[in-house]
Amino acid sequence: MVQDGAQGRVGAGARAVWAPLLLVSLPVVLLDRVSKLYALSHFSGNRPLVLIPHLLAFTYAENPGAAFSLLAGLSPLWRAALLDSASLVASVVLVLLLARAPRWWPNAFALALILGGALGNLVDRLLSGRVPDFIYVHYYGWSYPVFNFADSAITVGVALVLLAPYVRGRAREPAADTGKLCKTA
């Protein structure tokens, strides 16, 4: 009888992992891949497509390193080994965190975004040794490094993880007349 209860918990944990993987991580990987293939076919070797003058454009760049071209100066073999290993370890850790995370949806959503972004960039590194970037944000003389959809998913996911304690804290506010805590969702 104890074994059935343990299996029930494992089954519930597995369902809790599959939902964010299928509903968030997989679409992030697919959208990232499609957007990078589109950028390669439409922006590689061409002038940038200006969406908002002096603010937003689509262009094409390849990044052999990590974020902001970190590690780009390493030999290709060492860089690939380091970045691919780090991405694989991070992906396993994120899946484990999803399996053990409390069932509070912003946590699962945030972790799934980070996982989808990490896997999206890993696919590119495994296929070509480089990550295509195409979103260019700039303001006259200032510019942000060119990035992609996977990078955006990672950034939003990390921001949600950092903001989660504050959002969760607001969900429990003292009741006005009793002084007891009440849950508001």
N-to-C SSE string, H for helix and E for strand: HEEHHEEHEE
Morphology? globular
Low-confidence stretches: 1-10
The total count of strands amounts to 6
Radius of gyration: 20 Å
**Biggest sheet: strands, sense, closure?**
4 strands, antiparallel
For the largest beta sheet, what order do the strands appear in spatially? 1-2-3-4
Q: Averaged pLDDT, please? A: 82
By secondary-structure content and strand pairing, the structural class works out as: alpha+beta
Fraction of residues in helix: 55-70%
Distance between the termini: 34 Å
Q: Output the number of helix runs.
A: 4
How much strand content do the residues show? 15-25%
What does this structure look like?
The protein is built from 4 helices and 6 strands, in the order αββααββαββ. The chain has 185 residues and is an alpha+beta fold. The chain has a domain at 49-169. Helix 1 crosses helix 2 (76-100) and helix 1 packs across helix 3 (105-128). The longest helix is centred in the first third of the chain and has 42 residues, at 2-43. Mean pLDDT is 82; it is low at 1-10.
